[in-house]
Fold each of these.
Amino acid sequence: MKNIKLIEVPSEIGAGSRGASLGIEAIKIAALDFMSSFFVHFPSEKIPSENKILFEPIDSPYAKRVKGIILMYDKIAKAVSDTIKNNFFPVVLSGDHSNAGATIAGIKMAKPNSKLGIIWIDAHADLHTPYTTPSGNMHGMPLATAINEDNEDCAVHELDEETKKQWDYLKNIGKIAPKVLPEDVVIISLRDYEKEEKHLIDKLGMKVITTNEVRRKGPENIVRSVIRYLSDCTDIYVSFDVDSLDSSISRGTGTPVSNGLREREAEDLISKFMQNRKICCFEITEVNPTLDKENLMAEIAFNILQRSVNILMMN
């Protein structure tokens, strides 16, 4: 049986729209509305945010709030690493998806010799870099930090020395780079990406599974093929961005996209992944209740969280 520890990261400085830092509280409110005592059962650690820098001017246009992101990476990576070293299974509840780069760093710091696989359930590839970003928002970059990629082939920006140094720091945190090989990344429900990201996916041979493929083959077959595809990996991290869900239900997130997963499909996918013993960490991210009248997104996230953790407890 796995000992679960919740790591709460209410940081939203990597996002473009405001409000994702409130996502964790919204999930807790969903738990209360469902009369669930879920949040009483597990030890939890709350990582202090740097959200105050949202009120300060932006220093680097191509890596917005990168100073704060570095502080968050250091804090999150240490918390995740310590959690794993103390034989707990980290379940990370996170504001925006930039934080996932730090989670991955923490896993590698705890298990430097592991061959880490990543299951990235997301409408977006998050493979931009400060050299290619259309927005400068760092929640579009965490996978690039993990695979140690600048994508200079597609560069559209010149970086100043300071930004370059900060970006290099993020890629090399824990003194391990890359943390993950591109062929050990699987992106599920990807449907909104730029040509620069497509270039990397094709060049590096990253596996993409579309929503239609999930629907055609069914979650069980998808899970089986993904686990087989990652069979060389010793550990697997699952990152669930709620915008992987269809925009009809994912209003409560900053970047909703149509043709996404149905709630049941996402829940079945994730809970079936959780049955695999190689799964070493699970993260839910990008719930933004300020965009959501009925707190629907948080309720869906809570259902997935609860079911996944129940399965982890049984394994």
Amino acid sequence: MTVSVGTDTDAVYTMISNFVTQYNDAISQLNTQIGTAPDRDYPPLTDAQKAQMNTTDINNWNEKAEQGILL
């Protein structure tokens, strides 16, 4: 009986390459979030302001208000 062990270097290379690509994408997204400046024209909404707006407008406002929160 003969037992042999081999390595699949192509699979290892592909796994490492995919990891590096995903890591670089994550770092790029983080840098984009960190570097985004806040828009001071969109302060958090009060309850009275929310009562006068529809859900879509509230969501859009909150999205702009939260922009640049990491900076």
Amino acid sequence: MDEARRELLDADVIIDAGAVAAVGKGIAGDLPGIDAAGCVVTPGLVNTHHHLYQSLTRAVPGGQDALLFGWLQTLYPIWARFTPEHMFTSAQVGLAELALSGCTLSSDHLYLYPQGCRLEDTIHAAAEVGLRFQPTRGAMSIGVSQGGLPPDALVEHEADILDDCIRVIDAFHDPDPGSMCRVGVAPCSPFSVSRELMRDAAQLARDKGVMMHTHLAENEEDIAYSQEVFGCRPGEYAESLGWVGPDVWHAHCVKLDAAEIALFARTGTGVAHCPCSNCRLGSGIAPVRALRDAGVPVGLGVDGSASNDAGNLVAEARQAMLLQRVANGADAMSAREALEIATRGGADVLGRSECGRIAPGMRADIAIWDVSGIEAAGSWDPAALLLSGPTTVRDLIVEGREIVRDGQLQTLDLPALVARQNQMARNLREAT
């Protein structure tokens, strides 16, 4: 995934001070390192859309077979009971799951703050796991009493939302190239915040020099709401409020039309493609082939684990490839293009062009995939990981540090974490 898309055999990668120092054959000499014989080495995968807190509400009855709006209405009352401990633990579980699937950089969209929860509950969780993190301060301000979708108990006053955006950016955002945490601004969606908040959030984000994120054009219900309430399509609405540009990325975009695709291409607006969630909620197949052909930046997102219901990024990349083939033919997307979307594609969407590549000067975020096992047995092309390869990494390196070694997370006691999460889920279920 360098600029020339070279595929090197029996090569060395030298890491120094959290960055890739050199790549080539026979350059390591006697330096100590990791033996990756029998493996494929790729850039770490990049996740451009998640709701980490939802890992506590997988496969919830009543929401398993619902469309987007009904699914949300089933889950809102459960999420309203979350505490800071729920947010912290579910974030660690979600990030650990991502790490084991080869992810080194993940965004997160946290848009509800019940029971004293704050964005830093997830930021502290990510720091312990060791992944590069791009949390966004989401928000909902229009409850059911004002024509919105969320219950009134889960919405916030808009002045408070903007004040807290400033607080978390000032406290946690790090713009440096090797940054482990960059904060974004992310009103939840056009059907849960006001036009004024969307506009003010965009102005605040640009004043602070941070990125902007929201949901857009996710399904037919989304389109119908926009046309009924705003009198226009989602792309027009976003453009009218300043929500296009290279500092903006929208989640889903399943129902963008040709004019909206052209708008995103012209303005450099990014898209977080979430194929498994889109399938699970029956939202449709996003026009990724058309987006890529037009020049729109596209990355992958696992979305929340209440609508996926997994968080495996390499499986998401395979699903992206397969859906484009279903929609457009077997030659619509190769395994290598899907891997590119999952690495440098996602990094570019998040404004992190120093990630998603293995080349001198890039950050040392690297996934090592063991292709000597049953998954790739008989493969004539081990580099075609998404056709026949493992769905978990052998080793994962973030900023030059080993996060996963020999398939085991190194930074946390994973069995204890899973046990804690399962107990929390049982308690929530019993109280429902």
Amino acid sequence: MKTNQFFLIIFSFFICSAYSQVDESNFNSDTIKNRLERLNAKTPIELYFTPSVEKTIKRYLNTRVEFYKKNIDKLNYYLPLFEEQLQNQKIPVEIKYLPIIESRLDPSAVSKVGATGLWQFMFYTALENGLTMNSYVDERLDPYKSTAAAALYLNKLYKIYYDWNLVLASYNAGPRTISRAKKKSGGYANYWNMRPFLPSETANYIPSFIATMYILEYGNEHGINIYENKKTTRNIEKITIKEKTAFEHISDFFNYSTDSIYSLNPSYIHGIVPGYNKNELSLPIKLVDSLVMQEEEFYAFVKSEFDKREKPLPDLYSIDSKLVYKVKYGEFLGKIARKFGVKVSDIKRWNNLKNDNIRENQKLIIFPKRIPKT
């Protein structure tokens, strides 16, 4: 019993110590309101101190501060990139916090409905804003290109609504949802007036954004020292790859980690650069210099490695372009439909199938909406 009591005392001490380190003033309603008013004065985004905003800020102070502290390096790396692209489109720089809500700063994030990348682009929105997607490349996964596309899209939305909160709400739910909410509200064109008529996820989206912005804008007060001990920019440079090349070829020839190449170039789905249309790779400057100096020998090595390859390379096809797919052993229509992001009924319609029965090696016409990784 004495031993148990001793450990209980020690445990209680640590709990009390942890709570004593929390700055209670950060949870004070007046403090939050005053800070929010100061933020509102310097941004074109309307930041209102509403009960839902206050509640979300206090909840995030309890649940998300530690996540931000653990991801300082990501914040250091991505936020300046977002700022640059947003400023290029004259978009409020505070919208740089949007990908934290969308993807938790994971460039390879994929939602249940197929939204992909830091900015969680759906297929058609990505295509409409200049991103390339095919069986080798998904530029939604490219931090630079997807951010440029997101800035372009946000600018388009602003020209529709002229209200940054409605822009963010539309980014979350789509323009049709905003149009329906506007009609239900009696014609309001202000987010806060339309909010009661929006779906709950979208209604909570702006408070979530404001809470994220609030905590990180006042990061020092919450122990999140984003710009303290900031790492210098990685010495990375882009190089055009002239011939089809696999990441493993670069790794083997130059003795450089394949994982590092993937981390710098997440948009290449199979770890293969098709070598068409001036495909680029981001690589350390020293490695770029080596590749330039040994270009002829390197591409000869790549060709010899591909010639030895037993497994055929994936065919190149674009989203919504037709492909002929050969059914593999054990596959059924539902599995194939999920693989390409289409409906079973679509496959049946494209192939004049009267039922769900298919056989191994049967050829099916597919118009893919998803890019399979294998």
